[in-house]
Amino acid sequence: MKTINRMLTLSLMLLAVFVTYANENDESDSNIIMPVSHQQLAQGVLLGNFTHLDPAKKPSENFDLLDWSLTLPTDLNKDKKADIVYERALADGFELKPLFYTAEDGGMVFASPNEGAKTSSNTKYARTELREMLRRGNTQIKTQGITKNNWVFSQAHGSVKRNAGAVEGSLEATLAVNRVSITGDEKQVGRVIIGQIHATDDEPIRLYYRKLPNNEKGSIYFAHEINGGDDVWVNMIGSRSHTLADPEDGIGLNEKFSYKITVENSVLFVTIIRPGKANITKSIDMSKSGYHRNNQYMYFKAGVYNQNNSGDPRDYVQATFYHLDNQHDN
After folding, report:
1. What is the pTM (predicted TM-score) of this model?
2. Measured between alpha carbons, how far apart are the two ends of the chain, in Å?
3. What secondary structure does DSSP assign to 157-193, as a single string?
4. pLDDT digits (tens, 9 = 90+) for 183-211
5. How is 284-325 classified by DSSP, letter by letter?
6. What pLDDT sits at residue 5?
């Protein structure tokens, strides 16, 4: 009887721990209040105004790119690292077909092969991706660290917030994924990251689009990486499964959709918008994820970060962006 009682007590303790963890990490926590900027998003109305997009112009003539640098899957200077185009050069009309250029409808095209130059020895995948640069070309400000080039969480120490370029903020985009990889490892094929928040070392969010070779529609999901820890996965439309049948209400290739990513009071909010459909919003409380620490700084990323390094090296992902806006109150 004593053994049974001890087992029952242990089971109840484990259940209590599980319930506490689940409540703390439930993205639908009723205590979380959606930001006004997300509440005010019109249902089923894509973000941005596309009427000004001119196919005859360079990407920086259609989009304000002085807030961004561009990482490419090339190594033209042979330094064994991915090439970076910094703000002023990018804003001065840079383009490089077939990786980064203006589409026939005026959108901004990003493409990345399965095999290409990486940003570091720790990076597995190639990318054609923008990196937020709040310094807007002021090279006297360092790109890394707690500087005016990066932003921090509202939980951060007062001195950290004063030294940063901003406290929290939003990234919104409207895009269409034109192509995903179709060769290689079944666990990698068809997936691409289309938006991120990158921190000092880890990623508070990686937003994925994935379409499997035999499916007509794709899924949207994201990963929240605990600082120094594991990923928490959240499905928005469909799932990240590599065996998923066509996701109900999924998004096809070349189909425009919008996303808005916001950090407010250390809570992450992600909204997906599709024409004529109800918006989908998920949230995660990041107050215990470790990004408030004094060495943690953030920046947004957008473009295509190919999540397949197997299969045909010439296989590639591609997306066209029609709206891109990073927003910070201070």
Report:
1. 0.90
2. 63
3. -HHHHHHSSEESEEEEEEEEEEE---SS-TTTTTEEE
4. 999 999 999 999 999 999 999 999 999 99
5. EE-TTTTTTSTT--BEEEEEEEE---SS-TT-EEEEEEEEEE
6. 44
317: nearest Cα among 136, 106, 128: 128
pLDDT at 250: 97
Reported as half-sphere exposure (CB side, CA atoms, 13 A), residue 76 has a value of 6
pLDDT band at 159 (very low <50, low <70, confident <90, very high): very high
Closest CA to 210 of 191, 186, 236, 235: 191
The DSSP 8-state label assigned to residue 97 in this structure reads: T
Structure tokens at 207: 């937003």
Sign of the C-alpha dihedral computed for residues 162, 167, 173 and 177 taken in this order: positive
φ, ψ of residue 284 to 5 degrees: the values are: -140, 130
Q: In the prediction, which pLDDT does 147 show? A: 98
Query: Coil, strand or helix: which one is 88?
Result: helix
The pLDDT assigned to 29 comes to 54
Taking only Cα atoms into account, the Rg of the chain, rounded to an integer number of angstroms, comes to 21
Tell me the two tokens of residue 320: 């066209």
Q: For residue range 210-256, list pLDDT tens digits in order.
A: 999 999 999 999 999 999 999 999 999 999 999 989 998 999 999 99
Integer Cα distance of 111 and 98 in angstroms: 7
Could you tell me the CA-to-CA distances from 111 to 16, 160, 280, 305, 318 in Å, in that order? 47, 36, 27, 9, 4
* 54 secondary structure, DSSP code: -
Is residue 315 a contact partner of residue 213, using CB atoms and an 8 Å limit? no
Give the torsion sign (CA, 164, 165, 168, 172): negative
Contact 219, 239 (CB under 8 A): yes
Is residue 3 exposed (0-12), middle (13-18) or buried (19+ Cβ within 10 Å)?
exposed
